[in-house]
C-alpha cells in the first residue's frame, strides 16, 4: 500500500470567529466542538490513517510554541515536524515549501496529503476511503482535490465542477443563492474543501509549468532555511520574494492533471459562528451553548460564555459570544459579517483583534487582570521545569508575589528561591529571570508600574526558545 505523508496547513486567523479567534490565538487552536482543538483533531485524524508517516505542520512564526504544545499534549508515539513560515504568502507558497521540505528526505514518488488544520470531519471511515482513492489517483500522476457532496445550496464555499470520471471540468468562485441552487440540481458540483493529494514529482512538474516563480523562490526558502530546536524555519528573505497566490489560482485552475474525489464526510470548515451552530449538538429548543449560560425563552441561538455568566431572555436566531475583554451579539444570519468588526479593530489599532487577555508563551502564559496608564497587573503561570528569558526593561519596575508553587528568581547578581506568599521587587534596568524548578505550575501575581508598559520593552540576554524579539 502507498505510503502517505500528511501536510497540515495551520496558518490563518479565522476572523469570522471573533472574539474567540484572535490573530495570536487563531481558529485552529480553539476547542469548538469538544475539549480538543481543531488542530489536535486534525493531527489525530491523519495519524490514524493507513500507511501514514508522522505529519508535517506548516505554521506561522508567531504560533509555533502553542502549536507544538498542543501537539505534544496528544502524546503521539512519533513526533510531528513543524515548518515555520516567517511571512504569510497564501497557500501556494506554503504547500510548495512543504513539498520541497519533504523532498529533502523522501522519495519523489511519495504521496502528500495536504489538509487545512481547522476543518471538521465526522465520518472517519469515509475519510479513509476517500484518502485511499485519492492516493491511487496521485500515484497515476494526478493532482487530486476532495469535493464534498453538497447538502444544501451554500454560498460561502467555492465549487468544483466534475467532468468525465474523476476529471475536473472547472473551479467556480463562491456563487449567489440562485447559482448555488442550480449547482445542487445539476448534481456534478461539489464544495471545494481545499484538501489535496499528489506525489512530490507530479507537483513539482506542474508548478514548474504553471507557477515557476513560486517554485524557484520556495526551493531557495527551503535550502536556505535553518533548524531552530524543534522547528525548521524557512528563509525569510527568499519567501518575501514569493507571489502571494492561492493553490487554486496558481495551479489547480490551470493544470490538466486535476482530479476530484467526491466524498460525503460530514464535513465543515467551521468558517463562521452559524457554521459552528449547524454542526453542534443542540438542546430541545435548537440552542447551542457552552460555559456558564442561562437560557430563558431562547430558541435557535448560539450562546458561549468564556469568562462570566451569560443569561439570555426572549432571543431567537442570535449569537452571543462572551470573552474576558469582548462580547459579540449579532443575528445568526449576519455571522459572515463578523470579519467587518475585526477589520475595524485593526484600523483603529485596538489589541482585541490580536490578543486575548490570556497570552500563551513557550514557558506558560500570562493573563492581564487590570491595565491602566502607569500600572498593570498580571497573573503569570510558569510550567514545571520552564524558565523565562534573562531580560531587562528600560521603563518599568516589577513586583512579583508567589501565589502557589516555587520560583527561582534571578534579580541582578542574586539568585534565590521564593515560596507561597513571598515576594520580590525588580527595578527598571536590572537583569532578571523567573524559573519554575518544581513539579507543579508556578503561579504568581506581577504588578508593573512605569512610564511605558508595552511588551516590546524587553531586552533579552539569554533565551531557551531562540527568541530575540
Describe the structure.
The protein is an alpha/beta fold. It folds into 3 domains: 4-268, Spore Coat Polysaccharide Biosynthesis Protein SpsA, Chain A, CATH 3.90.550; 274-341, no CATH class; 358-462, Jelly Rolls. 23% of the residues lie in helices and 32% in strands. It contains 11 helices and 30 strands. Strands 1, 2, 3, 4, 6, 7, 8, 9, 10, 11 and 12 form an 11-stranded mixed beta sheet that branches. Strand 18 (318-322) and strand 19 form a beta hairpin. The longest helix has 16 residues, at 124-139.
Oligomer classification: single chain
Helical residue percent band:
10-25%
Total of DSSP H or I helical runs spanning 4+ residues: 11
Secondary-structure-derived class: alpha/beta
Q: What is the average of the pLDDT values?
A: 94
User: CATH superfamily of the largest domain, called what?
Assistant: Spore Coat Polysaccharide Biosynthesis Protein SpsA, Chain A
Radius of gyration: 24 Å
CATH architecture of the largest domain: Alpha-Beta Complex
CATH topology of the largest domain: Spore Coat Polysaccharide Biosynthesis Protein SpsA, Chain A
**N→C terminal distance:** 46 Å
Total count of strands = 30
CATH class of the largest domain: Alpha Beta
Biggest beta-sheet profile: 11 strands, mixed
Q: Tell me, briefly, the overall form.
A: globular
Describe the structure concisely:
23% of the residues lie in helices and 32% in strands. The chain has 469 residues and is of the alpha/beta class.
Amino acid at each position: 500500500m502507498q505510503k502517505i505523508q500528511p501536510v497540515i496547513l495551520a496558518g490563518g486567523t479565522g476572523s469570522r470567529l471573533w472574539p474567540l479567534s484572535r490573530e495570536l490565538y487563531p481558529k485552529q487552536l480553539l476547542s469548538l466542538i469538544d475539549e480538543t482543538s481543531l488542530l489536535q483533531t486534525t493531527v489525530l485524524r491523519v495519524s490514524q490513517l493507513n500507511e501514514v508517516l508522522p505529519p508535517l505542520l506548516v505554521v506561522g512564526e508567531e504560533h509555533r510554541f502553542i502549536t507544538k504544545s498542543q501537539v505534544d499534549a496528544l502524546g503521539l508515539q512519533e513526533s510531528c515536524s513543524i515548518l515555520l513560515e516567517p511571512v504569510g504568502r497564501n497557500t501556494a507558497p506554503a504547500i510548495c515549501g512543504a513539498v520541497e521540505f519533504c523532498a529533502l528526505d523522501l522519495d519523489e514518488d511519495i504521496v502528500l496529503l495536504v489538509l487545512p488544520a481547522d476543518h471538521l470531519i465526522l465520518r472517519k471511515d469515509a475519510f479513509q476511503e476517500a484518502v485511499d482513492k485519492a492516493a491511487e489517483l496521485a500515484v497515476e500522476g494526478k493532482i487530486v482535490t476532495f469535493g464534498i457532496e453538497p447538502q444544501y445550496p451554500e454560498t460561502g464555499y467555492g465549487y468544483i465542477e466534475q467532468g468525465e470520471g474523476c476529471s475536473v471540468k472547472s473551479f467556480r468562485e463562491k456563487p449567489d443563492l440562485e447559482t448555488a441552487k442550480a449547482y445542487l440540481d445539476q448534481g456534478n458540483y461539489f464544495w471545494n474543501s481545499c484538501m489535496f493529494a499528489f506525489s512530490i514529482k507530479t507537483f513539482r512538474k506542474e508548478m514548474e509549468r504553471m507557477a515557476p516563480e513560486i517554485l524557484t523562490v520556495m526551493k531557495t526558502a527551503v535550502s536556505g532555511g535553518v533548524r531552530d530546536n524543534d522547528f525548521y524555519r524557512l528563509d525569510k528573505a527568499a519567501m518575501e520574494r514569493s507571489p502571494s497566490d492561492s493553490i487554486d489560482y496558481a495551479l489547480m485552475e490551470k493544470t490538466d492533471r486535476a482530479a476530484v474525489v467526491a466524498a460525503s464526510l460530514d464535513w465543515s470548515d467551521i468558517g463562521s459562528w452559524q457554521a459552528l451552530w449547524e454542526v453542534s449538538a443542540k438542546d430541545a429548543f435548537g440552542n447551542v451553548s457552552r460555559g456558564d449560560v442561562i437560557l430563558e425563552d431562547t430558541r435557535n441561538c448560539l450562546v458561549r460564555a468564556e469568562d462570566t455568566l451569560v443569561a439570555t431572555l426572549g432571543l431567537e436566531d442570535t449569537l452571543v459570544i462572551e470573552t474576558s475583554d469582548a462580547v459579540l451579539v449579532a443575528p445568526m444570519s449576519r455571522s459572515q459579517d463578523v470579519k467587518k468588526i475585526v477589520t475595524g479593530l485593526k484600523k483603529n489599532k485596538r489589541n482585541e483583534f490580536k490578543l486575548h487577555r490570556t497570552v500563551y508563551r513557550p514557558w506558560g502564559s500570562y493573563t492581564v487582570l487590570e491595565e491602566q496608564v502607569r500600572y498593570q497587573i498580571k497573573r503569570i503561570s510558569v510550567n514545571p521545569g520552564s524558565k523565562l528569558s534573562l531580560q531587562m526593561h528600560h521603563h518599568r519596575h516589577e513586583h512579583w508575589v508567589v501565589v502557589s508553587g516555587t520560583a527561582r528568581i534571578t534579580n541582578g547578581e542574586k539568585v534565590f528561591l521564593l515560596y507561597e506568599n513571598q515576594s520580590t521587587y525588580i527595578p527598571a534596568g536590572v537583569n532578571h529571570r523567573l524559573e519554575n524548578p518544581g513539579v507543579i505550575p508556578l503561579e504568581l501575581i506581577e504588578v508593573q508600574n512605569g512610564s511605558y508598559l508595552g511588551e516590546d520593552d524587553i531586552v533579552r540576554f539569554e533565551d531557551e526558545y531562540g527568541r530575540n524579539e
